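Appendix B. One record, verbatim.
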Amino acid sequence: MSHNTRQRRLAAQRACDRILSGSRPATMRERLADLAAGGDLDGQPDFYGDGPVTTLEERVAELLGTEAAVFFPTGTMAQQVALRYGAERSGHPTVALHPLGHLEVHERHAYANLSGLRSTWPTTEPRNPTAAEIGALAEPVGSVVIELPLRDAGFVLPTWDELAAASAAAHSIGARLHLDGARLWESTPYLAHTLSEIADLADSTYVSFYKTIGGLSGAALAGTEQLASYARVWRHRYGGQVFQQWPAALSALAGLDRELPRIPEYVRHARTVAAALAALPGALVYPEPPHTQRFRLWLPYPAQALDDAALALAEDEKVWFAAGWQETDVPGMAMTEITVADPALDWTIEDVAEIGARFLSRVQDR
């Protein structure tokens, strides 16, 4: 997407009165004004990770029920440290990953290029590995990674029993269980367990602050005090010991207060929206019902035509339906990811059907 197209799309989405997928983009001024919700702006900023950063770390450790949590500027950095720790403690440089996992698809294989680790795939099925697949690994591994939810398989989650069994299987083969929990926040309704109960199954857990809860940036790696001490050393070595990160910390704290309590409502409504979208002509939704507040939608049109129709609907009618369409391996079908958040809560099944029909009429007219 060109810069001009992206700016035009953001401007159109921002001007919309109604939004089905995603949220209204905030300006920098609005984001700055929002920081006060996360703490006292008359207090002192952090100095290499104290102050509001420490407050955020303590809040995350409390939520996840871990001994400690360490703030990182990026999730990519946090995950590299977690996998290095597992490799060094076990003596095994191999990591059990899913080929659709974030570490393989979206982090440029940093675990291999920066840490000299290698991967093995317990499964290539579009879901997280089972206990049997973990137990059947043909070589020792330092860590087993479970991504909750597995985004590139459609934001899918295991059941609680499957997750608990996978944890036991990882530990039975002498491996650590690391949770890639960038969107762990929205996984609790489907798993029907608290954040701390989920994290208790793992040896380390990564969470993101800009995904789901709407922070500016940043992540945390949670686990034991020993892991935290190691993580702080390697955060510095990776260049993550930033002088001041109080805006990211305050926005994360505000997001935890504002968004975390609302996630069950978003997940419930995502099921309503998904059912309505699935009824559109030629539509496919996966998973149905959604496991989180996000899911995938396919429609039988070219991706560019769908993006053009979404932009036209937004600019002409001030309604944002869904954009970011991609061509797929399914002939004639394009796909996008739907995110149900606060702006979508007032959309009824009838609203989705009516506006969906108007959206599709624009695709057919082009």
